[in-house]
Amino acid sequence: DMQRSIKGEVAFSTFDEPPKNHIRVAELVIEKAKRLVEQKRDVVILLDSITRLARAYNLVIPTSGKILSGGIDANTLHHPKRFFGAARKVEEGGSLTILATAIVETGSKMDEVIFEEFKGTGNMELRLTRELAERRIFPAIDMNRSGTRKEELLLSDNELSMIWALRNYLNRQNYKEPIEAVIEVMKKTENNKQFLEIVSHLGKDSNKKEVTFQ
Q1: pLDDT at position 24
Q2: Distance of CA 120 to CAs 27, 58, 117, Å?
Q3: Which residues of the chain have pLDDT under 70?
Q4: 125, β-bridge pairs
Q5: What is the pLDDT of residue 207?
Q6: Which pLDDT belongs to residue 201?
Q7: Measured between alpha carbons, how far is residue 44 from residues 8, 41, 79, 162 in Å?
Q8: What is the 3-state secondary structure (H, E, C) of the chain?
Q9: pTM (2 d.p.)
Q10: How far is it, in rounded angstroms, from Cα 173 to Cα 161?
Q11: Residue 77 phi, psi (nearest 5)
Q12: Of 17, 77, 95, 206, which sits most exposed with the smallest number of CB within 10 A?
C-alpha cells in the first residue's frame, strides 16, 4: 500500500524478520541518503520506528556489561542516535530530514528509556492521542503537546502571535471539543496563512462552549 500511495522509495523489514535484517535495511537507507545529500539532493526519511530500531540493536550488538534501566545495554543507543543525528542541512549541498516515530505508553520500561533519550533532540515533536483516535478523529494530534522548536524563525510575527493565541485558548479549554473544528479547518485550507485567518478568533472568547466555522 505504501509503495502504491507515495512517490518515494520504500525500504522495509517486517516484524517477523530477524533483528540483523532490521539493522541492515536501516543502515543501507541512511548511507544511500547521505550519498544523495552529497549530490545536493534534498532527502526525507520516514522511519517507523526509532524504538524498534533501538530494540534491534540491543539484541545484536555485543554487550558492554553495563545494563541500563529497562534491560537496555549502555552501548545500544549510540547507533540509533547516530542514525537520527545524520539529519542536517549541508552548506552548498542538499539536506536530510528524518521523521521518526517513537512508541510510548506501552508499559515497557525499555521503550520509556528509549523515548526519553530522543525526547527533545528533534526540531519538531508531534504527539498523537489515543482518545481522539478511538473517536475516529484523524489526524489524532495532541496539539497542546506538539510543536516546533525555533518556530519564530519559520513564521512571521503576525502568524506567531495568532498561533500563541490559539494555543492559549486550547490550553484553557477541554481541547477535545474545539479540536474537531480545528482539524476540519486544517483539511480545508492550503497553508498556514489561510488556516490562521479562520481560527484566529478562537482566543477572543474563551467562554464559548461551542466553536463553529463558516
Answers
A1: 96
A2: 23, 22, 8
A3: 1, 173-178, 201-214
A4: 147
A5: 46
A6: 66
A7: 9, 10, 19, 29
A8: CHHHHCCCCCCCCCCCCCHHHHHHHHHHHHHHHHHHHHCCCEEEEEECCHHHHHHHHHHHCCCCCCECCCCCECCCCHHHHHHHCCCEECCCCCEEEEEECCCCCCCCHHHHHHHHHHCCCCCEECCECHHHHHCCCCCCECHHHCEECCHHHCCCHHHHHHHHHHHHHHHHCCCHHHHHHHHHHHHHCCCHHHHHHHHHHHHHCCCCCCCCCC
A9: 0.77
A10: 19
A11: -70, -15
A12: 206
Q: How far is CA 30 from the centre of its chain?
A: 18
- At 208 the pLDDT is 46
What is the pLDDT at residue 210?
42
What does each C-alpha distance from 177 to 101, 111, 204, 208 come to in angstroms?
A: 26, 31, 17, 11
Decide if domain 1-122 falls under CATH 3.40.50.300.
yes
How far apart CA 154 and CA 150 sit, in angstroms, is 8
Q: What pLDDT does residue 46 have? A: 93
Cell, residue 141: 494530534
pLDDT at 17 (0 to 100):
93
Per domain, the residue ranges of the chain are: 1-122, 126-214
**C-alpha cell belonging to residue 116:** 526519553
> In this structure, what are the phi and psi dihedrals at residue 98, rounded to the nearest 5 degrees?
-120, 120
Enter the C-alpha cell of residue 137.
Answer: 478523529
- Rounded to whole angstroms, the Cα distance separating 45 from 95 reads 11
Q: What pLDDT score was predicted for residue 213?
A: 39
Residue carrying the nine cell digits 521523521: 99
